[in-house]
Specification:
Glutathione S-transferase Yfyf (Class Pi), Chain A, domain 2, 204 residues, four-stranded mixed sheet, 7% strand, 8 helices
């Protein structure tokens, strides 16, 4: 299997961390900022959004990083990461969808302004920081309830996608809320295969 996307992308790293958990070797090619452009016609034929990453598995192509993570886990039969039981699976996917939608939308303006250097109005940046902290507090409350991982005792895909998001929040140059459950959870995640390489690697 081949993965198209630069390693500095958080969405590429979540796929790579999933692969590390599964013991899968992905042939990764650099695409995106500083490398080949995903606006090239050949890439757009694979993903009309022109975004990274894209997974190629033989004649099958897939985009959207969370969907790629689900596919890899399902293909490997890794029911620990993605449960087969409908309600348990739905909870994992609920938190994955929350990460891709609600949480990502909260931090986007602040991150792009303060880390990527894009121009944004100060009040928009402040509102984004406040929203980012508010959403992370929701995650903290969930982790305080479970006392372990996002969906309970077991490490799942929800921990992979949200672990990367939480690490970004910890590294961002913002005033952060005190979230002890998130801190303790990140410490627990640090023992997982692939964490040092794909999460706690100094990349934003």
């Amino acid at each position: 299997m081949k993965l198209l996307g630069r390693l500095t992308s958080i969405n590429v790293r979540k796929v790579m961390w999933t692969a590390a958990q599964l013991g899968l070797e992905l042939d990764r090619e650099d695409w995106g900022a500083g490398f080949r452009s995903p606006q090239e016609a050949g890439y757009l034929a694979l993903n009309p959004n022109g975004l990274i990453p894209v997974l190629i598995d033989g004649g099958f192509t897939l985009w959207e990083s969370n969907s790629i993570c689900r596919y890899l886990a399902a293909k490997a039969g890794a029911t620990a990461l993605l449960p087969a039981e409908p309600q348990a699976r739905a909870k994992v996917e609920q938190w994955m969808d929350w990460q891709a939608g609600e949480l990502n939308n909260a931090w986007r303006v602040a991150f792009m302004a303060l880390v990527r250097g894009q121009p944004h109005a100060p009040e928009a940046v402040a509102a984004s920081v406040a929203s980012w902290n508010r959403h992370m507090a929701m995650l903290d409350a969930q982790l305080a309830r479970t006392g372990a991982h996002v969906c309970g005792d077991a490490f799942t895909l929800a921990d992979i996608v949200l672990g990367l998001s939480a690490q970004r929040w910890k590294n961002a140059p913002i005033a952060r809320a005190e979230l002890p459950a998130v801190d303790a959870w990140l410490q627990r995640l640090s023992s997982q295969p692939g964490f040092a390489e794909f999460v706690d690697n100094g990349m934003p």
